[in-house]
Write a structure and sequence with these properties.
Number of strands: 4
Shape: globular
Strand order of the largest sheet: 1-2
Distance between the termini: 20 Å
Structural class: alpha+beta
Strand content: 5-15%
Radius of gyration: 12 Å
CATH class: Mainly Alpha
Helix content: 25-40%
CATH architecture: Orthogonal Bundle
CATH superfamily: Winged helix-like DNA-binding domain superfamily/Winged helix DNA-binding domain
Largest sheet: 2 strands, parallel
Number of helices: 5
Number of domains: 1
Order of helices and strands: HEHHEHEEH
């Protein structure tokens, strides 16, 4: 299984209404210390792929995507539909990791 396949499989496991960090996903793969590559793997996914890419955020709790396809506003909208509250601070959407982080 490739690294990208591992990222996809792990991202599918994040429950509805929960989030995980890029580092949390990479820690569960066979390639430690590649959190940025998790972002690239998610970037390659089609928005309609069925893989909940929007559930992966920065470890500090903010939506850090700068992708023109997977925008921060789209990610926030998808999370909000799942009951995840996002608060805008300093131009970024923040998620309370204490309440919403997936405990794998």
């Amino acid at each position: 299984m490739t690294f990208y396949d591992q990222v996809k499989a792990l991202t599918k496991r994040i429950p509805h209404g929960k989030v995980a960090s890029y580092g949390q996903i990479v820690a569960l793969t066979s390639t430690p210390r590649a959190a940025r590559v998790v972002g690239w793997a998610l970037h390659t996914m089609d928005v309609e792929s069925g893989i909940p890419w929007h559930r992966v955020i920065n470890s500090k709790g903010y939506i850090s995507t700068t992708c023109p396809t997977h925008t921060a506003n789209l990610q926030k909208q998808l999370l909000t539909k799942e009951g995840v509250t996002a608060t805008k601070r300093n131009g970024l959407w923040w998620i309370d990791m204490k309440n919403y982080q997936w405990q794998n």
